[in-house]
Amino acid sequence: MAKVKVASAWLDACGGCHMSFLDLDEALIDLAGKIELTATPITDIKQFPPVDVGIIEGAVSNEHDEQVVKDLRANCKILMVWGDCACFGGIASMRNLFDTDEVLRRYYSTESTARDSKVPSSEDIPPLTKVRPINEVVKVDCYVPGCPPSPKAIHYALAELLQGRIPVVPSEIMRFD
Amino acid sequence: MNEITLTINGRQVKGEEGDTVLEICQANGIDVPTLCHLEGLSDVGACRMCVVEIEKERRPVPACTYPARDGLVVQTNTERLEKYRRQILELIFTEHNHFCMFCEASGDCELQKLAYRYQMDNVRYPYTLPSLAVDAVSDYLVIDHNRCILCGRCIRACSELAASHTLDFSQRGWKTLVTADLEQPLGESSCLVCGACVQACPTGAIFSKLNLYKGKKDDCQQVKTVCPVCGVGCELNVLVKDNNLVRIEALRLAEPKGPLCQMGRFELLCETRPRVTSPLVRGEQGKLEECSLGRAVEVIAHRLAKAKGGFAGMVSTRIPSETLSLFRSFIGEVIGSDSIDTLDGQSYRIIAQGVRQFQGNGRVLDIECPIEEILEADCIIVVGADPGKTNPIVCTLVRRAVSQRKAKLIVIDPSRDVFPLWTDLWLKPRAGSEGDLLNGVAKILIDRGLVEPVSAELIKSFSQYRVGEALRSTGIERGRLELLAEMYGRAEHGVIIYGEGLLQTNGASTITAILNLANMTGNQVGDKLRVISLKPRANSRGAWELGLAKGIKQDKPKGLYLLLADEPESVELLTRLMGIAFLVVQASYHSPVTAMADVVLPSPIWAEREGKYVTMDGRVLELKQVLQPKDGLLQDQEVLMAISQKLGHKLT
């Protein structure tokens, strides 16, 4: 049987969801025989190759994130999102409580250790937008909430997909924290 | 009540007329999810989680507010209802900040549990997420409006259970907020810090700083016990993790004593006094030095032998009856003294004298009614008492009677109105003339024929009495005295509450006057009068019934064995101890009292002890051991027995 092609992306989030995926430990060995990871946050591939399953960790919080999400959505058959940031907005969306300029000013000048620091600006830096969960930008097929999702929940979701079913995390293993 | 029959999910179930559909579902084990419903509170149908389908109703209705009728056909778990419920959850989640990962309540949250149940892995609506204030001004309580789902449970607990009426909704619609008084911070409001709102809150919107991140309910051991502070006897559920106190809750929030009070719910968790961990004796330098229990006992034995009598024993009434009764034997048999008292023994002696003047020798404490009688009252007289300070739950019950039953509230106090904003009438007699005031009232009632014929003899005893005497000694106008007489005399359930304020001048005769007044107006339930004396400590009544409040004969005994346990010291106590030649203090904490002692022995705190308490209205409750004693500390009984053994006595 051909391996299932998977690509994953890391947007506005802490990376904990991917860490939780690595915490699958020995289950990863079995999984490696069934899936092929074509792009991950550490491959730094700018353009997603067409895959069966796209995975996103993190919320959409700038124009670049938005582009990544749309690109992955266009190149995958099933889009799965991991973690509370991607499912609901989570910690990342706390920024929505404040004005964007105020957040930047606070980050770069009031709390920074560097003296005379300015908010960096360049046309290469994508401007911040409102922080949104993925389903506010593109259609999402399945969700694995959690902060981070437990390895058990991630494993459940992947196993279901490999069985050809769209997973809905059961109540017993669903966690938001 | 008429029995009715309903069909719920195709099953025939029975209930009573007046039940709601939800009550019948719950009584029959039919699971209906709820969020704004809480047992003991009125239902408002705010959250819509409990929607059910009822035949012939055009749309789903909330089960919690729908009155059940005979023959109703109800569905509780159709696909449509489950869809609606999930949709409601999504709407709640988009309204405010309900991200669990940085919420104190995560793991204990009812909203979170429902979201799991409905597998809510995403929401389909845009978030509104307004930035709302967090009110952390209060010493113990925090309101985070961002976590609030506006279910109103805190508001209903505050008004219906605690009868404080501090919390309410402010603003309307989109901008609705739970607020204290007129948008005051909670810590600067009329809040009484009972914490009923904390226990009622289903999310992390109202919580206590003291419980923060100490542990989730599921990770804790839960111990059912009784509050060790005052004589009311509120039943507690204490949460413990790794031998640490995590949280104190009411065992049953909906019961009259359920709201608890600041002392029981919070202050017990704030102990900062240093513990006595080892026996200490005063060394040659005059300093207290650590020693073995054996050495401490030797010192005690030596002084006892030298003094040849003249010792006395004194004990805190926060200690359970079993230990108290052992202490009585210890003082009697081992120390060989019949001089024994409790720290609050003077109160008992005055009450006993007052009761004896009323009815000769007989039952002393048994004459009073249960405190729940306050809830039935339509007139309450509070005389010489400040229940807000000594027994706050009594205050709660009084406020409930006033706000829910429109009871008239009369305060008789020379210096202050102990129920500001709540009293109908505040009389300020000269200090010590409270008894005259009540006798004046009795005379007015007799003159107006507002007394029961049952007490003919008592009424006769007033024939020579003139109301003018009462007016002169109290300094109160006749009109106001008559007003009081009318309120109390015309009441069907008049309750009189008195407290330690009376235990000074003329205390006993005032108590007699109270009992006379209650008796002649027929304010009786069964064989008990509607009179309540506030007892200051958890086991005051238990100790008094055991005969421990005999009193110490000498003004300054040659030696005193004081079993203080975790009772806080008072100026009064320190004054009494001054000039006693030899002082043994068995205490949980270092304090000015232990600093005066010649021998200090360790004692467990309330949470490390167990035994029986007798509440102020005579119920026997079980204090359970919540924590393992610190560093293998001995129980009070073990210390007493060790001393006895050394002195050649066997205590049982």
Q: Secondary-structure map with pairings?
A:
The complex is a heterodimer of chains A (about 180) and B (about 650).
Chain A: E1 4-10, H1 16-22, H2 27-32, E2 35-39, E3 51-57, E4 60-62, H3 63-75, E5 76-82, H4 83-87, H5 100-110, E6 128-132, E7 142-144, H6 151-162
Parallel strand pairs in A: 1-2, 1-3, 3-5, 5-7
Antiparallel strand pairs in A: 4-6
Chain B: E1 3-8, E2 11-16, H1 21-27, E3 51-54, E4 61-62, E5 73-75, H2 79-95, H3 110-117, E6 134-135, E7 141-144, H4 153-161, E8 167-170, E9 177-180, H5 196-200, E10 206-208, E11 221-226, E12 235-241, E13 244-250, H6 262-265, E14 280-282, E15 288-290, H7 293-307, E16 311-315, H8 321-334, E17 340-342, H9 345-359, H10 373-376, E18 379-383, H11 387-390, H12 392-405, E19 408-412, E20 425-427, H13 434-447, H14 456-460, H15 467-474, H16 478-489, E21 494-498, H17 507-520, E22 524-525, E23 528-529, E24 531-533, H18 540-545, E25 559-565, H19 571-577, E26 582-587, H20 592-596, E27 599-602, E28 611-614, E29 620-623, H21 636-646
Helix pairs in contact in B: 7-21, 8-21, 9-17, 13-15, 13-16, 13-17
What's a concise summary of this model?
With 177 residues, chain A is α/β, with parallel strands linked by helices. Chain A is built from 6 helices and 7 strands. Chain B folds into 4 domains: 3-77, Ubiquitin-like (UB roll) (Roll), CATH 3.10.20.740; 91-269, 2-Layer Sandwich (Alpha-Beta Plaits); 280-344 and 539-646, Rossmann fold (3-Layer(aba) Sandwich), CATH 3.40.50; 347-533, Dimethylsulfoxide Reductase, domain 2.
